[in-house]
Write a structure and sequence with these properties.
CATH superfamily of the largest domain: DD-peptidase/beta-lactamase superfamily
Shape: globular
Distance between the termini: 102 Å
Number of domains: 2
Structural class: alpha+beta
Radius of gyration: 29 Å
Number of helices: 15
Strand order of the largest sheet: 5-4-3-17-16-15-14-13
Length: 540
């Protein structure tokens, strides 16, 4: 009996220990359970799987844009630093051989190439081999007397007034020029302005920078960039035109324009191929030669590789952070004038926003970087058709990743571009574009001034009213009620955050209410308005 009682007491004691242990672990269990309940899948902005803007997915924006602009092929890459969260391609990279565009496709990067040249200059500056405040004549011999006092930094600013060799008669982007050939084509042309007093983009400026890099480094320019940027970052789909032939491209023409080597050779699975360029009429254009666009538009790359390069720009991998301020902000000229551009980049009022874009023979390229720590988004777009401006499309794509990057207006009914200039400067630039095209300006309505006269306050806002009877009259003859939409208008306004915008109605959507959406005049109006706003909004 005594033994049984002892065993019973032991069991009771053991149960008490277990109970105490369970009670002791209860807060941890509850804490873990509560923590698990707090996990939520993002439904907007960073990390959300719902990547759309004002009811349109990125894919929908892309294929609508490609159809409107008749673009054969396009590649898109999106950075949400440090990730490349999207790398995708659409359409055809070679219409004749039916090659598909892919994330590996290599395109001409156009004026984005200036960014690589600027990095090369700054790397040599950091090594003490090149002084950016020194006259370029120290590094490049035999320059015209008028260029003698131009500095390396002024070349980076595009503040030289030196003529652009691309605009000279007989220039051919596919030709294998020597640097001296290109210099000779413009050496006798007077400077457009005194160096250091104004800005005008010229490919000659970056040709001279590339030559200065060669002198300072003792290396061929393309070799220096390849070693210190392309190979350093492990970029497998970035090169110069002379390296295009090294790409392992299958000769599909020998097999009725069909791939077959991927069945037996590993290198042809998901191949790296270069895109073929096309002009406005979709006629094949010879591949640009890097020698003909040295330092300015000589890089060929995939959108994903440009994105890797973009991420590297953000830190200290390529150049020291303390030197970012020299080339990644609006530049101050010798006469004190502030210009919202530097080294091919344009800077906007939206905090941290910068872009680089342009077109070369057969290709168009664009990159915008939202560098503020709260955003850290980059959009890269490359296409094999010349003359395409991606600014509006890229902004809408960026807006799918955060409302802070959007216009705040209805992008479905309005075509919107952010301007790098003030409202007053932008209005003046629109006026200049109208004058250039011999389009009559009827009036400018200054809403900001009208509000002030009424003792009210609002940010600056002006509307330019203009047009041509030759264009509008035929449309009004078809549908007289369309007269309420004419003359044409472009609004220039500043939002609450300080960003300056240009906007006008999307003409096809507007005309649809009058049954005129398929009239060729509507397409012509849209193209005209886009070209005016694009020129007015940018610096280059």
């Amino acid at each position: 009996m005594t033994s049984s009682l002892k065993n019973f007491k032991k069991r009771i004691s053991s149960c008490r220990h277990i109970a105490f242990a369970l009670i002791a672990t209860l807060p941890l269990v509850l804490s873990t359970s509560a923590h698990a309940q707090q996990n939520q899948i993002p439904t907007s902005d960073r990390g959300s799987s719902k990547v759309e803007y004002q009811g349109h997915s990125i894919d929908e924006m892309i294929y609508t844009f490609m159809a409107e602009k008749q673009i054969p092929g396009l590649s898109l890459a999106i950075v949400q630093a440090p990730y490349i969260s999207r790398s995708v391609a659409y359409g055809i990279s070679d219409l004749e051989q039916h090659r598909l565009a892919s994330p590996n496709t290599v395109w001409n990067a156009g004026p984005i190439s200036q960014g690589y040249a600027a990095v090369a200059v700054m790397q040599l500056y950091e090594q003490g081999k090149l002084d950016i405040r020194e006259k370029v004549s120290k590094y490049v011999q035999g320059l015209p007397t008028a260029w003698a006092d131009v500095t390396v930094f002024e070349l980076m600013q595009h503040a030289t007034g030196i003529a652009d060799y691309r605009n000279q008669p007989g220039y051919d982007a596919a030709k294998n020029y020597s640097s001296q050939d290109l210099i000779n084509s413009v050496k006798d042309i007077p400077l457009a302005f005194t160096p250091g007093t104004d800005v005008a983009q010229s490919a000659t400026n970056f040709l001279l920078l590339a030559n200065a890099v060669e002198t300072a480094s003792g290396m061929n320019y393309s070799d220096f960039v390849t070693k210190n940027q392309i190979q350093f970052l492990g970029l497998k789909h970035t090169c110069f035109s002379q390296d295009i032939s090294k790409l392992p491209m299958e000769n599909v023409a020998a097999n009725n324009n069909k791939h077959k080597e991927f069945k037996t050779k590993l290198q042809f699975i998901d191949p790296t191929e270069n895109a073929v360029g096309y002009n406005a009429n979709l006629t094949r254009v010879p591949l640009p030669n890097s020698a003909a666009l040295k330092g300015f538009s000589d890089i060929f790359a995939s959108a994903a590789d440009i994105s890797v390069w973009d991420i590297a720009l953000a830190g200290s991998l390529l150049i020291k952070p303390e030197h970012h301020e020299l080339i990644y902000r609006p530049t101050k000229l010798n006469n004190g004038k502030i210009v919202p551009a530097m080294a091919g980049w344009t800077f906007f009022h939206h905090k941290g926003l910068m872009d680089s874009k342009g077109t070369t023979a057969g290709f168009s390229a664009f990159i915008c970087r939202f560098t503020d720590p709260s955003e850290l988004v980059c959009v890269t777009l490359l296409a094999n058709k010349e003359g395409i401006d991606f600014t509006n499309l890229a902004r809408r794509i960026a807006s799918t990743y955060g409302k802070s990057m959007s216009s705040g207006a209805n992008d479905n009914t309005l075509y919107l571009l952010e301007s790098a200039h003030s409202v007053e400067q932008t209005v003046a630039r629109v006026q200049a574009e109208l004058k250039k095209r011999n389009i009559q300006l009827f009036t400018i309505i200054d809403h900001g001034q009208n509000a002030k006269d009424a003792k009210l306050e609002m940010p600056p806002s002006q509307v330019l009213v203009f047009g041509s009877a030759a264009v509008g009259t035929p449309l009004m003859k078809i549908n007289p009620s369309f007269s309420v939409e004419l003359p044409l208008k472009i609004a220039v306004w500043q939002d609450a955050s300080g960003s300056v915008w240009l906007s006008f109605p999307r003409m096809k959507e507007l005309a649809a209410g009058y049954g005129l959406e398929n009239d060729p005049s509507i397409t012509a109006m849209q193209t005209l308005l886009e070209s005016i706003t694009q020129a007015a909004a940018a610096q280059y």
